[in-house]
Amino acid sequence: MVTTTLSTAVELVKAPLLYKGKVRELYDLGEEMLLVVTDRISAFDYVLSPAVPDKGNMLNQISRFWFEQTASLQENHVVHTDVERLGELVTAPEQLKDRIMVAKKAQRIDIECIVRGYITGGGWRQYQATGEINGRKLPEGLRKNQELPEPIFTPSAKNDVGHDEDISIARMKELVGAELTDELERRSIMLYKAAHEYCRKRGIILADTKFEFGILDGRIILIDEIFTPDSSRFWAVENYALDTEIDSMDKEPVRTYLAGSGWDKNSPPDPLPAEVVEATANRYREIYRRLTAAE
């Protein structure tokens, strides 16, 4: 596999830039849009340097894999992922080959549809304080990282500025309506269960994940990314344990380094050491390999 690093595609795409996120860039193709997944990496709301080799390739290919796997369960926004079909719209097709997705334009539903199969992370912190997650009462006596009796839907309201806001299902119904809330909950849990079962067969636990949906011609479609290390918490089965911090299969080396670096989180951090960048790149390659059985 050729190792490449791309921090932005602005100079490589001959189309208007619609949106530049921390990792993804969206370009306007008229009826459709072009998503380019860069190798930028973020933590604690800062985009870090340097970029992580192959990260965008891995993320895009993981999303493509899962969109294909789940297409029979849930319609999604993918039109194609073939850079050659873009023709003269791109000036360096080899650089963009594995990191592009042409997608249908949909009206985004401003809810992050989060499903938790295990009690960990922010959900565990809520439960410790209140016995609830997003206003949902859970059984007493649960332990950190324990698998829940059934996956739960714990949405958040998307904010384009600042952090997304954890909300109750009752609040979600106020925002988008009861019928749409029930439908998004049903679809999200269905998708989570299918992926959780698939991952377990490959020695991976899908602890929690988030989805984004949109409306296209009156239909609900899946948009953005799906079951990537940036949108999901993956644990290697061999690392699973209760009452501890489990090293997740994502940018954990970056978080661990920053936590021990003395960084104040109020100003851009210094560039990441080469060994942290390489360790992080290997995490993304490994989760791609284990998920897709690619060599």
Rg from alpha-carbon coordinates: 19 Å
Q: Could you state the order of secondary-structure elements as H and E?
A: EEEEEHEHEEEHEEEEEHHEEEHH
Q: What is the approximate shape?
A: globular
The total strand number stands at 17
The pLDDT mean sits at 95
- Helix and strand content put the structural class at alpha+beta
The share of residues in extended strands comes to 25-35%
Please provide a written account of the structure.
The protein has 295 residues and is of the alpha+beta class. Helices cover 30% and strands 26% of the residues. Strand 4 and strand 5 (46-48) form a beta hairpin. The longest helix is centred in the middle third of the chain and has 23 residues, at 178-200.
Kindly list the characteristics that best describe this protein.
globular; 295 residues; alpha+beta; 17 strands; five-stranded antiparallel beta sheet; single chain
Write the layout of secondary structure elements.
Elements lengths: L16 E4 L3 E5 L3 E6 L3 E3 L2 E3 L6 H16 L7 E3 L12 H4 L3 E5 L2 E2 L2 E8 L2 H10 L1 E2 L2 E2 L9 E7 L2 E2 L7 E2 L2 H8 L1 H23 L3 E13 L2 E5 L8 E5 L15 H8 L14 H19 L3
Antiparallel strand pairs: 1-2, 2-3, 3-7, 4-5, 6-7, 8-15, 9-12, 9-13, 9-15, 10-11, 13-14, 15-16, 15-17
